[in-house]
């Protein structure tokens, strides 16, 4: 998942911090290794203390310790390696997993850490072997796997095969809402290489994939969430129908505009929801996509999915009274992790065209003020509950 980034040259995943203090006595220089807690503090200290060139510096939001506080401080600007690009981040979006990492203390073992999974910006530098992108391209990418690839900072690295050009009809803010939400939806649907985390269907964006599942009903629990909006759009692209979703009824017309055919009140009881789905779907529901994945919604989804079908969840399995004839898959929604890389590269090779043609539409945007500082306040807001819009910050606006 998200790992601590190489804070200074020579620091790699699972290695110890290797800062040293230099002193002079009698004309002889001596270096004394600093303890890890002291070194960690230096990451958030001034450039003068860190003795790094100003041109190598940027600002980032640091999670200082497990279940600790967030703080804006200096960070090194990473250098792109083989098949990577350096991106100047103009917009980054917030996701529920970001506040959960802080509150629950999971996914990250090494601190301090930079979080963030969505970036849109401009390519500043290309690494060796990159042929599909060049300096100056407007791009979006999915941040993950170490601080170099996290997005709550002014510069980040993207893997070229899962970085796409932004079409002219989309702003940076709109583009930043796409990577993690779309990746979660796509990998949950279409990753045949990961049967434990995907339904394993044929990708809807590939030749022969569009409309392939015509006439097959689907239920999407939580259609107004960021992931839910992309699940609905991919379901439409794949031909599913009817596309039944639960949401606040105030979002009915918006969700129908994305492809939902029926929007049911998210406050319906389990029995009432099952009854409504049965009225609408004339064929067995073989796919239920639960983008909420609380214990209650998982058990409702499992009750709805037909024998031989699959329930897709995004959090840990909380289903009770399982039967052998139904699958449950927990999707790991990121294009950068090894099991998702092939399907992710396939998606990103077609993504610019899908966005340009309006086949895939971004989430609605709410822009947070105050640059990176706005992320800290935004995560608290997200924790309280945000529906239908995606919170987006502008790292370059940081004071």
UniProtKB/TrEMBL annotation:
SMART domains per UniProt: PKS_ER
Record-level Gene Ontology MF annotations: oxidoreductase activity, acting on NAD(P)H
Membrane-spanning residues: none
Domain Enoyl reductase (ER) intervals: 68-393
Entries under InterPro entries matching the protein: ADH-like_C, ADH-like_N, ER, GroES-like_sf, NAD(P)-bd_dom_sf, Trans-enoyl_RdTase-like
Gene3D superfamilies: Medium-chain alcohol dehydrogenases, catalytic domain (3.90.180.10), NAD(P)-binding Rossmann-like Domain (3.40.50.720)
Source taxon at top rank: Eukaryota
Matches recorded under SUPFAM superfamilies: GroES-like, NAD(P)-binding Rossmann-fold domains
Protein name, UniProt field: Enoyl reductase (ER) domain-containing protein
Originating organism: Rhodofomes roseus
């Amino acid at each position: 998942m998200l790992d601590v980034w190489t804070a200074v040259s020579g620091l790699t995943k699972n290695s110890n911090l290797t800062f040293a203090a230099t002193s002079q006595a009698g004309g002889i220089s001596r270096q004394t290794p600093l303890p890890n807690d002291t070194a960690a503090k230096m990451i958030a200290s001034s450039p003068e203390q860190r003795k790094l060139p100003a041109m190598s510096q940027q600002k980032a939001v640091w999670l200082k310790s497990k279940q600790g506080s967030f703080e804006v401080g200096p960070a090194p600007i990473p250098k792109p390696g083989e098949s990577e690009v350096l991106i100047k981040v103009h917009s980054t979006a917030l996701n529920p997993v970001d506040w959960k990492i802080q509150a629950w203390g999971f996914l990250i073992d090494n601190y301090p850490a930079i979080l963030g999974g969505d970036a849109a910006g401009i390519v500043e530098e290309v690494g060796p072997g990159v042929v599909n992108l060049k300096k100056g391209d407007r791009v979006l990418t999915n941040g993950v796997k170490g601080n170099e690839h996290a997005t709550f900072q002014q510069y980040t690295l993207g893997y070229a095969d899962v970085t796409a050009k932004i079409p002219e009809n989309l702003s940076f803010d709109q583009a930043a809402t796409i990577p993690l939400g779309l990746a979660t939806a796509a990998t949950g649907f279409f990753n045949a290489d990961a049967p434990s985390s995907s339904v394993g269907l044929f990708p809807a964006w590939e030749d022969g994939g569009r409309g392939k599942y015509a006439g097959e009903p689907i239920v999407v629990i939580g259609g107004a969430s960021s992931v839910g909006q992309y699940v609905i759009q991919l379901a439409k692209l794949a031909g599913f129908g009817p596309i039944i979703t639960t949401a606040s009824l105030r979002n009915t017309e918006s969700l129908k505009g994305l492809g939902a055919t029926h929007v049911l009140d998210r406050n319906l009881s389990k029995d009432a929801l099952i009854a409504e789905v049965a009225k609408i779907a004339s064929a067995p529901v073989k796919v239920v996509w639960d983008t909420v994945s609380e214990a209650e919604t998982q058990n409702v989804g499992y009750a709805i999915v037909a024998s031989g079908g699959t329930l897709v969840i995004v959090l840990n399995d909380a289903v009770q009274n399982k039967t052998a004839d139904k699958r449950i898959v927990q999707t790991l929604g990121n294009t950068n992790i090894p099991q998702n890389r092939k399907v992710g590269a396939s998606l990103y090779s077609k993504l610019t065209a899908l966005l340009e043609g309006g086949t895939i539409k971004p989430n609605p945007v709410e822009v947070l003020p105050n640059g990176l500082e706005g992320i800290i306040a935004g995560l608290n807001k997200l924790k309280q509950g945000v529906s239908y819009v995606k919170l987006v910050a502008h790292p370059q606006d940081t004071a």
